[in-house]
Design a protein that fits this description.
- By secondary structure, the protein is mostly beta strands.
- The chain has one helix and 13 strands; from the N terminus they run αβββββββββββββ.
- Strands 1, 2, 3, 6, 7, 10, 11, 12 and 13 form a nine-stranded antiparallel beta sheet that branches. Strands 4-5 form a two-stranded antiparallel ribbon.
- The longest helix has 17 residues.
- The N and C termini lie far apart (39 Å).
């Protein structure tokens, strides 16, 4: 089931990359993502309402009485936007992220988990958000229900906001 879904997403992604759209609509936008993960964000329109959204940064998780950055997380999402209305559009999509988690016990908004030694991390994501566009500036607010597959399987929740500038 998961393999079939991933192969279908790969086919959709490949067809979007090969689609012919106006070059003006295919600008990269780059910026910063604030919250979970905290880091850099980039977006590349692929077709009229489809885009590839990428991120690289650090997760912010609780550990005892404070918050820590237990390791890096990078990934990509294929997103679909609604038509813009006065510079505002809604979007949703699917994607994945990979990284590492260092040893320790952590909690996020949904679950607690412990890692005995540094371990790889894999997360499947379903971002849902709102994008506000002012010329070349884009501000997004995103809630991302996710499922962590490794190091310990559990539901989690990512999200926050990003500010990007179109190049």
């Amino acid at each position: 089931m998961v393999a079939r879904t991933l192969s279908q997403l790969a086919l959709v992604f490949a067809s979007l990359l090969l689609s012919h759209t106006a070059q003006a609509k295919r600008r990269w936008s780059v910026g910063v993502a604030i919250a979970d993960p905290f880091g850099v964000s980039a977006k590349r329109p692929l077709a009229d309402r489809f885009a590839l959204q990428m991120f690289a940064g650090w997760r912010l998780l609780g550990n005892d009485d404070d918050y820590q950055f237990p390791g890096p997380l990078a990934g990509a999402d294929l997103i679909v936007h609604t038509p813009q209305f006065h510079g505002i559009s809604l979007y949703g999509g699917a994607g994945a992220g990979a990284g590492f988690v260092r040893a320790g016990c952590y909690y996020d908004s949904v679950a607690d988990f412990c890692v005995d030694s540094a371990a790889p991390s894999l997360i499947f994501r379903a971002p849902l958000g709102i994008a506000l566009q002012w010329g070349r500036l884009e501000l997004t607010f995103e809630a991302t229900p996710s499922y962590r597959v490794m190091p310990e399987a559990h539901h989690t929740f990512l999200g926050g906001f990003a500010v990007r500038w179109s190049l």
